[in-house]
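#struct-help
A.M.: can someone run this one for me? Single chain, 180 residues.
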Amino acid sequence: MKLTRRRTAGLGLTLGLLIATPFAVGTLLPRDHIAEGVRALPIGADEVFWRAVDIDGWAEWRAAVDSITHIEGSNFEAIVHGLGESIRYGFELDVEQRTMTAEILSTGLPYGGRWTISVVETGERASEVRVTEEGFVTPPVWRFVAHVIIGTETSLSEYLDDLVAECAAGSCGSTASGAD
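D.P.: on it. Structure tokens below:
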């Protein structure tokens, strides 16, 4: 009987630590973060830029995006559906600088922030795409997951990898957004 009580107490202690550790560590991690990713492409900056910011085309080539719903009456807001979530974003485009900012407008999420996607010419028919995420994660347990388990740069790295694959398949420059 004593052995069973010890095992039960040990199991309870272990479960308590498994629950308390992410919370305790999460409270020590910063709420705000900046993450960045860069990829070089052997394609002109204009072609890459127009594919990168073609929000309507994201569902075709981004693994994490199932569909896009535009907000009626707004040219700069859309709901991105994917990975079991629907998140409202506001977009700001600067064609001259080849940048786009996508900011989470949804409220009530345990995280938020914005991405800045920029494309620069690095040579003849060569470019570099950079995504900078300025984000935050509020609940300590989510902070633990974001910083320790998933990594704060994971989603932007997936975006960049998807974009590189899309361009490698010959699809960059083939949008109707204005690249031609």
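A.M.: thanks! The chain has a mean pLDDT of 88.
D.P.: also worth noting: The first helix runs from residue 2 to 28.
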